[in-house]
Specification:
Blueprint (H helix, E strand, L loop, with lengths): L2 H17 L7 H14 L5 H7 L4 H25 L6 H11 L3 H5 L5 E6 L3 E6 L6 H6 L14 E8 L2 E6 L13 E2 L11 E7 L4 H12 L14 E7 L5 E9 L8 E8 L2 E17 L12 E10 L13 E5 L1 E6 L5 E4 L14 H8 L3 H9 L16 H6 L14 H9 L7 H13 L9 H13 L28 E2 L8 H4 L13 E2 L2 H4 L7 E2 L2 E2 H9 L19 H9 L4 H7 L1 H4 L3 H10 L1 E3 L5 E3 L8 H9 L19 H7 L13 H12 L6 H14 L5 H4 L1
Parallel strand pairs: 1-7, 12-14, 15-16
Antiparallel strand pairs: 1-2, 2-6, 3-4, 3-6, 4-5, 7-8, 8-9, 9-10, 10-11, 11-14, 12-13, 17-18, 19-20
Helix pairs in contact: 1-2, 24-25
């Protein structure tokens, strides 16, 4: 082994030993973990093999025998990989769904999984939080797991956060390469990508590649039906002829509310195909589950039945091919099965069937849930209301449970549309629809609602009204928690952001009612009306809502109007109801606030803010908790609690954290002792029984250095 490489390995081993049980925070620490795992898996690089030559023959043979035994299990797995029908697709989806998406959810971004497929590589991208060390160490440990990707690939590069490593395995090899990570240089990821898996394909002819594409296209639309996190699954596929096809599967609604729908849309060769499915659910908990080492500590499990229904009529829909059994993902389709079954089944290694075991037997016995579900599906006969009811009666009728049977999808059926056109039915002019919506909003009986019909009005205006400014004088928008609907022209609209420094999270729940007139929140149901990927006239749905309402996420800093010298009522409400977060909110949004800081400086200086001993002081009378302040207090033997030092989330400020709070100096906050500080120090020392003379000298010397002509009268 050359000295440079040996030195590098020795250095990485030292880094790993020092790391201990902590999560890596640097690239070098991540590389050290990868090197350690690689060695534990039995990886012997060329330098290591050359080093074995220096061992006694018997010791060398024993070591190589250990590596050979370790490879036996993975060898049997690698042989089975090539007999299964692309189990890796389900494994990739399952691994992505098992990941954490807390960061994406805090940013109100939907968790997604994207496949980008070309003849050279199969790329998987997600916006999950990123790998942790224990996840990296155990990926694909049991059964097929992640190793199933080697049914199509010979090299797999994984990049997530600080981690960048690869596995290498070719058909016929012992299989250790499938579990042995090798450190790999990082690639540049897209802005919305946090984890990328790049599989270099081992399919060397178009027939093999086409077979892979067929396997991808065979993934059923309901693949994401029972997933916990993933709500969007996208495919970008390069066909054998070089053309690109894109497919999106999206899940909306919730299973427990029986509102779940799945939409499937494919764009290829200039045409768009789409399909929609709706489902109703019945759920039962099965108790007293038998013990099983693969479900350690579990004594109960849920069985769910999903019934496909027509998206509009809610009538049951039957498929001649039957439905799937699920263990979160489809396992196999049973032709005689009219509904889908989801349970925590124990599957065989290739996930193409369930095992014969007591655990699964108990779960299948719990499918008597069906009897309860069928009773709930029985529909009453339709009754039609009299024609004498007026529009003003609509809300009372809806409250009584009257259903709107208008077929809103009829015009999407080309044959039905052609039939109506032949009868003389014409397209309704956009101008007429907009005018009717305007009349409804100006009506005195118009009330806010998040029902589908009313929300569809806003979606229609987004798609077809070219100038949103013409809507502002009359449009009304439903607001969370309000019985009356304010006009869009209000200055107080906000998006319901979950970030802790944004308006929605800054006001405690118990005080929401006190700020209803200061903060109007757009309902999430309205925000979810249009996909984030869609752009009409160059702007997204969320941007359109922002332009229409002026909605923000962060509290407005100053009151409306050019040159306003008053803080906004919203930011003052934060100070009143959540004073501990007031300054932190200013820090977080300072880049947005700083342009109007001079205008409101006088009022902000007088705002009373929490200090470190439980009292509030005007901002301009306070000090930052810096090393300068602490050093002088320690030198003079004075208690910090006797000074108005700000209570900040950062605690005592270091060089880096001080820079984050330095903007407060614009409003009179001091980071170093000044004349006022030393005057207070002098007064405090005068009340002590005994004060060292050098402390008194230090105080007077400091005051003399800081004194200005205008301080003369005050100092006397």
């Amino acid at each position: 082994m050359d000295s440079a490489n040996a030195g590098n390995l020795s250095r990485l081993y030292g880094v790993f030993e020092k790391l201990g049980d902590r999560e890596p925070t640097t690239l070098e620490e991540a590389q050290a973990v990868i090197e350690n795992i690689s060695a534990e898996k039995g990886h012997l690089d060329k330098d290591t093999l050359r080093g074995l030559e220096s061992l006694p023959p018997r010791s060398r043979e024993r070591l190589l025998r250990i590596v050979e035994l370790k490879a036996k299990y993975t060898t049997s797995i690698s042989e089975d990989l090539y007999s299964s029908k692309y189990p890796f697709l389900n494994e990739l989806v399952q691994n992505a769904d098992d990941s954490s998406y807390r960061t994406a959810q805090r940013n109100l971004v939907s968790p997604y999984l994207r496949f980008i497929i070309s003849p050279e590589a199969f790329v998987v991208e997600t916006n999950e939080d990123g790998f942790l060390e224990d996840e990296h160490d155990h990926i694909g440990e049991k059964g097929f797991g992640f190793k199933s990707v080697f049914s199509i690939a010979e090299k797999v590069h994984i990049q997530s956060g600080l981690w960048s490593f690869q596995f290498k395995h070719r058909r016929g090899q012992d299989g250790l390469g499938m579990v042995t990570p090798l450190d790999t240089p990082m690639d540049t990821l897209g802005e919305d990508v946090t984890t990328r898996i790049t599989m270099s394909l081992s399919l060397h002819d178009s027939a093999g590649y086409q077979k892979l594409l067929n396997g991808v296209e065979d993934m059923p639309m309901n693949t994401i039906l029972f997933l916990k996190n993933i709500r969007t699954l996208r495919f970008v596929v390069e066909k054998v002829d070089g053309r690109i096809a894109t497919t999106a599967i999206q899940k909306t609604g919730q299973r427990w509310r029986n509102t779940l729908r799945i939409t499937w849309e494919r764009e290829w060769a200039g045409s768009i195909q789409s399909e929609e499915g709706a489902y109703r659910f019945a759920i039962q908990t099965v108790c007293d589950m038998p013990e099983d080492a693969r479900r350690e500590g579990r004594n109960s499990a849920q069985v769910e039945l999903a019934f496909p229904v027509h998206p509009r009529t809610q009538q049951p829909q039957l498929d001649e091919l039957g439905q799937h059994m699920f263990a979160h993902l489809p396992i196999r389709r049973i032709q005689s099965l009219p509904f889908m079954i989801q349970a925590d089944f124990i599957a065989v290694a290739n996930r193409e069937d369930i095992r014969v075991c007591e655990w699964n037997d108990k779960l299948t016995a719990g499918i008597d849930t069906l009897a309860q579900a069928v009773a709930g599906f029985d529909l009453d006969e339709e009754l039609y209301v009299a024609s004498d009811y007026a529009v003003s009666h609509r809300r009372a009728l809806e409250y009584s449970g009257v259903v709107d049977l208008l077929d809103r999808a009829a015009s999407r059926n080309p044959r039905r549309k052609a039939f109506y056109a032949a009868l003389g039915v014409e397209e309704c002019p956009i101008e007429l629809v907009v005018e009717k919506i305007r009349e409804a909003h100006r009506s005195s009986i118009w009330q806010p609602s998040t029902e589908v019909l009313q929300l569809a009005e806003f979606r229609y205006l987004y798609y077809y009204c070219e100038n949103y400014k013409t809507l502002k004088p009359w449009i009304k928008i439903p607001a969370l928690g309000k019985k009356t609907t304010p006009a869009a022209a209000s200055e107080n609209w906000y998006f319901p952001s979950q970030k802790k420094h944004d308006m929605y999270s800054l006001i405690p729940t118990e005080n929401v009612g006190d700020v209803r007139e200061l903060a109007l929140f757009i309902p999430q149901a309205l925000i979810d009306q249009v996909s984030l990927d869609i752009r009409i006239r160059g702007i997204t749905w969320r941007e359109w809502l922002k332009r229409l309402t002026g909605a923000h996420c962060s509290p407005r800093f100053s009151r409306p109007g050019p040159g306003s010298t008053q803080l906004s009522r919203a930011i003052l409400a934060v100070l009143k109801y959540n004073p501990g977060m007031f300054l932190d909110a200013l820090r977080e949004h300072w880049s947005d606030y700083q342009n109007s800081a001079d205008d409101v400086a006088n009022q902000l200086k007088s705002c009373r803010v929490p200090c470190n001993w439980g009292f509030d002081f005007s901002l301009h009378l306070t000090f930052l908790d810096t090393a300068f302040i602490r050093d002088v207090l320690e030198e003079l033997d004075l208690d910090a609690d006797d000074f108005a030092i700000l209570e900040l989330p950062s605690g005592r400020l270091t060089g880096v954290t001080y820079q984050q709070w330095q903007f407060l100096e614009l409003f009179g906050v001091r980071s170093k002792p000044d004349i006022d500080f030393y005057q207070q120090a002098l007064e405090l020392t005068s009340h002590k029984d005994e004060t060292p003379l050098n402390h008194i000298k230090t105080i007077y010397r400091s005051m003399a250095q800081l004194a200005r002509v205008e301080d003369y009268d005050n100092l006397r």
